[in-house]
Amino acid sequence: MELSMASLIDSTRIEKIMLAKKVGQFLATEQADVERRTVENVARVLAQDISKQVRGVLAYELRRCDQLSRDLSNKIATDIEEVSGPFLQATQALDEETFEKLIPVLTDSVRAWVARREKLSENLISVLVQEGGETSIAALLRNDLIELPEIACGRVIDKFGNNQRLMDHMGARKDLTLVIAERIIEKVSSHFKKLLVDHYLMGSSAASDIVDASAYEVMWRQIKDATSAQIHAFVTDLKVNRRLTHQTVVEMATRGSMKFLESALALQTGKTVDAVKLILTLRYPPDFVKLLKQARVPDQLAPKYLGLVKAYNQKA
Length: 316
Hints:
mainly alpha, 3 domains, 71% helix, rod-shaped
């Protein structure tokens, strides 16, 4: 008896699903008003069916309808995500004012379906940014079918600037303004940093400075708490890979690592670190000048080296 009852329930559900499909397809085409009203009444009943599969099929078919009665479209739009999501992403039956009122009351996962629409006005984008959480904002940033206004991007940065995942999504877009690209360059991962420089900032006077500053900051985080031996090994690795520059030495020393400067000068001149330390006491200034020449420090950076060494000696 239980098996036959289950079979009956399944059979009824399948029949309703087929009916929902036919009703949706019927309403998606132009029909006489009388027939349309009759079928819409059937759709209203199906939209309240206990089975989410029935409601889901109906909503999926009705997403292609350009015109739906307000009560029916609102019923579908406020259903569970499985039902409402695909409908909200595609429907043209809801006007902008309705979407504007809906967006704040939707869950963020459902709001994400709205953010994936093929067309979004600046006003709706603004509402999405204002009301959106991480899920819907990610969907909005990944929607390459729309153009994001600079003001909307700015508000996303203000709201989610510390969320690297979202900043990476923004960094992948091709419609950013230079102002926005420069704002997020320090907030994205290294991969998207390169994309931003290549796509937006190449040729900009700020490009090399931005990239270098970011690289220096990463380097500093690696060495700031390191031991002398670890720093020397780090500097040695830079030199072997031809990445040890005089500007890098200055940047690390300026941030507080004289050990970096000592190791760099030792490796660049072939002297021991202890020998370099002795010269950096400046007891014999000519030796310091000679050391910089041996390390091939550019004339314009020599005063910077001297200033760093003097400042360090005063603290010692």
